[in-house]
C-alpha cells in the first residue's frame, strides 16, 4: 500500500491509511463546531460505511445527500445544500468533507467555498477519475445548463485523502473513464508513463496504486507551476476542448446516451491528436499509436452529420476561449504540450471525419 504524500499548493494529498491518521490529527488541532459529510446517493450507500469508522471525533457529524449524476451538478443543488447547512447549524467553523466522485468534490468544494464566505473542506475522492483529476488543483464548481463547470472558484481543500479501497465498488466503465485522465497525463507530460498503458491487458491492478500516485504527481507538478491557469496549466485541457463540448452536447440531447467524462475526453484526445498531426506537431506513427490505444479501450461514439454543428456551437462558450478565439492545448510529440493554439473549423471537421473512419 502506498503511504507517500504529495505536497500541493498549501495542502497535502495523503494516500490510504495515512490520510485518516492526518484527518484525525487535523480534527484535534482545529476547533470545528460540527462536521458535514456531503455524499451522493451512490457514495452514501457504498463509501460512507467505509469512511465513518475512521473518523475519531465527539463532534456532531451530519450527512447531506443529493441525487447522483452530472445532471444534478448545478446551482439548484447548491441552494438546497446551503439551506440544509443553515438549518443544521452550519457556521464559519464547520468542516465539510466531500466523499464521492468528481460531481461531489466539484460541487461540495464550491458549496463549502461560498457558504458563509468559505468554510474548510476536505476531499475524499471515490472514483478513479476524481482521484487523478478532481483531487488536485482546487477547481470547484457547477454546470450552467449544458456548459460544463461554467460557475466556480479556485480554492484549495484543507487536505485530500486518496484511498484506493473505494475503487472496489467502482464499475468497469467508471474505471475506464478515470483511465482517460491518466492517459492524458502521459501524453502531455511523461512519455514513459504513457508507455505503461500501451498494452492494457498487462496492467496489474495491484500496481494501480503506483499508477494513480504518478498521475496525481504529474497533475500536481503542472498545477504548482501555474495555479490560476494563465499558462502551462492549460496543458491539462488537452482532449477537453472538444471533449467537453461533446460531453455537454450528449448530456443535453434527448436522443443521445449521456457519456461519462472519460469517454468524451477519449474522443477529444483522438480528435485533438489528429489536429496536432495536421499541424505537424506529432508524427503519423505517434498519431496511429494514440488512436489505436484509445480505440482499443473506448467504444466508438457515433456522430451523425447533424451532431457536429451544435458541438462546434458549444465550443464558443468554452471557458478556455480568450478574446473570442478558441484556444486548444495540442501535443508536440508524446509527452510534450503546445498551448494557445488557434484551430480553424475546417480542421475540426476533418478530425471528426478521421475519427469516424
UniProtKB/TrEMBL annotation:
InterPro entries: Dehydroquinate_synthase, DHQ_synth_AroB, DHQ_synth_fam, DHQS/DOIS_N, DHQS_C
Enzyme Commission number, as recorded: 4.2.3.4
Enzyme class, spelled out: lyase
The 3-dehydroquinate synthase N-terminal domain, residue ranges: 64-176
GO molecular function: 3-dehydroquinate synthase activity; metal ion binding; nucleotide binding
GO process terms (BP): aromatic amino acid family biosynthetic process; chorismate biosynthetic process
A GO-annotated cellular component: cytoplasm
Pfam families: DHQ_synthase (PF01761), DHQS_C (PF24621)
TM helices/strands, residue ranges: none
Positions of the 3-dehydroquinate synthase C-terminal domain: 178-321
This protein's UniProt keywords: Cobalt, Lyase, Metal-binding, NAD, Nucleotide-binding, Zinc
Cofactor: Zn(2+); NAD(+); Co(2+)
Purpose of the protein: Catalyzes the conversion of 3-deoxy-D-arabino-heptulosonate 7-phosphate (DAHP) to dehydroquinate (DHQ).
UniProt xrefs under NCBIfam families: aroB
PANTHER family: 3-DEHYDROQUINATE SYNTHASE (PTHR43622)
Name of the featured protein: 3-dehydroquinate synthase
